[in-house]
Amino acid sequence: MTELVNNKIPAKAKKIYDYHWVYMGxxxxxxxxxxxxxxxxxxxxxxxxxxxxSRFMILPFIAPYGLAVFAAYFALGTPDKMRLFKKExxxxxxxxxxxxxxxxxGTAIFVTVALGxxxxxxxxxxxxxxxxxxxxxxxxxxxKFTSIPTTSALTILxxxxxxxxxxPFMNFLENKMNYKLALYISIIxxxxxxxxxxxxxxxxxxxxxxxxxxxxxxxSYF
Length: 222
What we know:
Structural class: mainly alpha
Distance between the termini: 47 Å
């Protein structure tokens, strides 16, 4: 039990840039949960009966959100310390460079989100015949799988989180969370989240089904 209290990081523990892999795993798990929550908030607001549901998952985690946080940090760093993989882009801490860093970071996120939604939505529909989401009723939509308003909202949220939440949260994990505990959680819960995601994809691709394991119409309670 003492091993789970003392935060002793092994000397050989692997890192990705500034942070150890196990803590990045914890961050990805938290991001996956927040993605599940955010999708339900959007669905609750947008649906007629203010519905929340399982979002096709058994567990309350959506793995692509965790992967998105990892990809953003791995490829771009953070908005205030932007880089292209290992190469720093804006070295001078001038006002102009800071503005350019935010603009470039936001643009990269915007393009990636928009193209990602189009590619994933189109491929799934071509293979399974299922339309996973449809933004056709949203103004300025680009195909039915993405739109300027939704992509802009996701971009702004991503920039804010990567600027003001990611670094403090990762520093907190590095300094306060026991390494072995983080390792166990990352391996066990991370494996379950990946398995859950694979089950969802299997149902989509093989059975052509969008499984909703539970749903709650909040309008019926008011």
